[in-house]
Amino acid sequence: MCARRREAERTHRNRPLAARPRVRTRDSIASAFVILQNEGMAGTYKLIEIVGTSPISFAEAVKSAIAEASKTIRHLDWFEVVEQRGSIAEGKVQDFQVTLKVGFKIEH
């Protein structure tokens, strides 16, 4: 780590919370609220976490997870990739794995 970055981090940690600059994070619930609010989608939504796998790619793992979830869950509206992992066998990529947060509208 360079000296300039170390100094910046030390200065940041020593500031009181109110004086620290706001850092935007991808909080799933807040993100979902903003997405739903911007698209004018009134209602109640549920957030679940699912994991998809594929021997081909991360994109295929996402598609696989969404396709499987859509068989039993209606009104899937959006997803967020939370984590990406993979497994290695004999020096080669064996599987791709993604953890997704998926939002769907609850029926009344």
Structure description:
The structure is a single chain. This protein has 108 residues and is α+β, with helices and mostly antiparallel strands. The protein has one domain (3-105): Flavin-binding protein dodecin (Dodecin subunit-like), CATH 3.30.1660.10. The protein has three helices and three strands. The protein has helices at residues 3-14, 28-38, 58-69, and strands at 45-54, 76-89, 92-105. The protein has a three-stranded antiparallel sheet. The longest helix has 12 residues, at 3-14. The model is unreliable at 17-25 (pLDDT under 50).
Mean pLDDT across every amino acid position: 78
Record field, number of beta strands? 3
Do you know the CATH architecture? 2-Layer Sandwich
By CATH reckoning, the class would read: Alpha Beta
Radius of gyration: 19 Å
Identify the CATH homologous superfamily: Flavin-binding protein dodecin
CATH topology: Dodecin subunit-like
Q: List the strand order in the largest sheet.
A: 1-3-2
Overall form: flat
The major sheet is characterized as: 3 strands, antiparallel
Figure out the total of helices.
3
